[in-house]
Write a structure and sequence with these properties.
This protein has 381 residues and is α+β, with helices and mostly antiparallel strands. The chain is built from eleven helices and 15 strands. The strands form two sheets. An eleven-stranded mixed sheet has the order 2-5-6-8-15-9-14-13-12-11-10, sandwiched between helices.
C-alpha cells in the first residue's frame, strides 16, 4: 500500500473517487469537493487547505480520507477554541491542525471511503499510523475527524482517537402520508401552535416554490448567494465562507441532490432555503431573507422541508446544527460524534478529562431534551 497527500481533489479523477462511494450521500462526492475548491471557498487563504489522503495498491485507489489543513476553527461546528487557547498559554501553536470533515457542513456521514474489495477495518490501522506520523513530521498539532458514522467513530475510539459527543435535532418520517398525519402524533397544544404559525405565513401572502436540479436557474443562484451573504453580514459581520460561484457549481455538479425552496411575497422572491438530499435524507443547509416576516424562517426552513421529505418518502430531515426551537416543531435530539488525536502527549490527559466531563453534560442534555418532545405521551419514533 502507498499513501499520498494531495493538495487538490482534481489530483484524483471523479471516476476513481466516486467509485469508493458506497451510498449517494452527496457531501463526500468528488463533485461537492470540486465545487468548494473551484469556487475558491476552500483555499489556504481561507484557512481550508485541501490535503486529502489517498491510499493506493498497485496504482488502484483503495481508500480516500478527506483532509484539510486548518489555520483556524471556523466552519467546523465542533468547537475547540478553548483547546487552542490552552495550547497558546503553554507556548505551543495549535494551528495548523488537520481535520477530516466536510467544510461548513455539520452533517454526519461517511468520512473514510474504501474500495469495494476491502473494508474500513482492513485499511484503517495502517492509514491512521501513517497519518499520525505525517502529522508529527509536518508539525501539525492534531487530527480531528468530524461527524463520522458511528461505526468509524467506534473503530477510531478503539485505536485511541478520542470520541467527543455532541447533539443535534433531526426530524424522522414515520411513514407519514402528509403533514396532517405528522401533526396527528403531537399533543393538541403543540399541533395548534404549528398550525397557527403556518396559517400566519399564508395570511401574509406567501407562496412557496420547490425548485430541483436543472430547474434552478442562474438567476435563482445569484438570488440565493445574495441572501446567504446578507445572512452572514447580519450574523457575523462578513459575507460568509462560501463564494458565489460555489452555488452555481453545486447546481451544475450535483443537480440530482439539490433543492432550493423560494418564498415569494405577493409574487416577489424575498427568501429562500437551500437543501441537499439523497435517497434517505434531506439536509437543510442555508437560508436567507431580504425582509423579516413572522414565522417565515420556520416555514421555509422546517415545515416546507418536512413537506418535501414526506412527498419524497425520505426517512430523515437533518435541519443543521444547534436549535432547541426545533424540538417543539417535531425534531428529536440525536447524538453526534467526532474523534480527536493530539500529537503532544502532555496535552492528552487534559483533553481526556475535558471530553469525559463534556460527555456527561451532553448525555444529561440529550435526556432532558427528550422530555420536551411535542408528541403525545412524549412518544418519539
Amino acid at each position: 500500500m502507498h499513501i499520498d497527500f494531495i493538495s487538490s481533489i482534481h489530483a484524483v479523477s471523479a471516476t476513481e473517487w466516486n467509485a469508493l462511494c458506497a451510498t449517494d450521500y452527496p457531501f463526500i462526492r468528488h463533485e461537492f469537493f470540486a465545487a468548494l475548491e473551484d469556487s475558491n471557498s476552500t483555499t489556504l487563504a481561507r484557512g481550508w487547505q485541501p490535503h486529502h489522503l489517498i491510499m493506493r495498491d498497485q496504482g488502484i485507489v483503495m481508500a480516500a480520507l478527506p483532509l484539510f489543513i486548518k489555520h483556524h476553527s471556523y466552519g467546523e461546528y465542533v468547537f475547540d477554541w478553548a483547546w487552542a487557547d490552552a495550547w497558546q498559554r503553554y507556548g505551543f501553536a495549535y494551528y495548523p491542525k488537520v481535520v477530516s470533515a466536510i467544510p461548513f457542513t455539520p452533517c454526519y456521514g461517511t468520512r473514510l471511503l474504501v474500495n469495494q474489495h476491502t473494508t474500513t477495518r482492513a485499511v484503517l490501522p495502517g492509514l491512521v499510523e501513517h497519518l499520525q506520523q505525517h502529522i508529527v513530521q509536518q508539525g501539525f498539532s492534531s487530527w480531528h475527524c468530524l461527524f463520522p458514522v458511528e461505526e468509524l467513530k467506534d473503530q477510531l475510539s478503539d485505536m485511541g482517537i478520542r470520541p467527543r459527543l455532541g447533539c443535534q435535532f433531526h426530524w424522522f418520517n414515520n411513514d407519514y402520508k402528509n403533514f396532517s398525519d405528522f401533526l396527528a402524533r403531537m399533543s393538541s397544544r403543540k399541533r395548534k401552535n404549528i398550525l397557527k404559525e403556518r396559517r400566519h405565513v399564508q395570511e401574509q401572502g406567501f407562496t412557496f416554490e420547490w425548485k430541483q436540479g436543472a430547474a434552478i436557474t442562474a438567476a435563482d443562484w445569484n438570488f440565493f448567494a445574495e441572501l446567504y451573504q446578507l445572512t452572514y453580514l447580519k450574523r457575523s459581520g462578513h459575507g460568509g465562507y462560501l463564494q458565489r460561484d460555489f452555488f452555481h457549481l453545486l447546481g451544475k455538479n450535483l443537480p440530482e441532490h439539490t433543492l432550493l425552496i423560494i418564498a415569494r411575497h405577493q409574487g416577489s422572491p424575498v427568501a429562500a432555503a437551500l437543501y441537499l438530499y439523497d435517497s434517505s435524507t434531506l439536509y437543510g443547509r442555508y437560508w436567507g431573507c431580504r425582509e423579516e416576516f413572522d414565522f417565515l424562517h420556520f416555514e421555509t426552513c422546517y415545515y416546507q422541508g418536512i413537506d418535501f421529505s414526506i412527498a419524497q418518502g425520505l426517512q430523515r430531515f437533518d435541519g443543521g446544527a444547534q436549535g432547541e426551537h426545533k424540538i417543539q416543531r417535531g425534531f428529536e435530539p440525536v447524538a453526534t460524534w467526532s474523534n480527536h488525536w493530539v500529537a503532544t502527549e502532555d496535552f492528552r490527559p487534559a483533553i481526556n478529562r475535558f471530553l469525559a466531563e463534556e460527555r456527561h453534560s451532553v448525555t444529561h442534555y440529550l435526556s432532558a431534551a427528550r422530555e420536551h418532545l411535542p408528541f403525545k405521551n412524549n412518544d418519539p419514533r
